[in-house]
Amino acid sequence: EAGVAQSPRYKIIEKRQSVAFWCNPISGHATLYWYQQILGQGPKLLIQFQNNGVVDDSQLPKDRFSAERLKGVDSTLKIQPAKLEDSAVYLCASSLGTGGYEQFFGPGTRLTVL
Amino acid sequence: KQEVTQIPAALSVPEGENLVLNCSFTDSAIYNLQWFRQDPGKGLTSLLLIQSSQREQTSGRLNASLDKSSGRSTLYIAASQPGDSATYLCAVRSNTGNQFYFGTGTSLTVIP
Prior knowledge:
heterodimer; A: 114 residues; mainly beta; 7-stranded mixed β-sheet; 4-stranded antiparallel β-sheet; 11 strands; 48% strand; globular; B: 112 residues; 6-stranded mixed β-sheet; 5-stranded antiparallel β-sheet
């Protein structure tokens, strides 16, 4: 079974530029998560989708971050414009559903903002 | 809001030792608790998932316990090996809002 795919793996941009990350979850997984992991910290949930609807985006900085999951499969996370403090690893995860299901993570995208 | 704490932040042990990693959480209203391993520059690998109704789960040399009433979980690693060196993270899933909350991790080094 293929795991969660993410691209790109690495991205370096200058502040005020825009960047987008892509995630393809495990086939059949209805729930998709985007996390931000700053160096030395645990992952922080940014947004959670159930199919193509948003379940929780309370910690998403909506003035600069946006995410979508068209057709309930792939998802894109965008930052526009980027700030220095956005430098982090962006992790995508998926699970069969909400509730007691196990999460599976992709390899992450390491973003460096100069 | 759920707070998840992992102590110690770093641990170094000689190969072959048994060890225990700790995770504590402030709100017992959880669906489950999941332990992960993270290697440098990599994503998270799921190790064990314990549902709120369970007391423990085992996989190979790993055993995780859950005491929901006291807000604690432990991950026991038997006969540690250098390949076990990684950061270990625990995450709890709240059943009020479905959010996952992560600890900051324990960085484990197993010395050959």
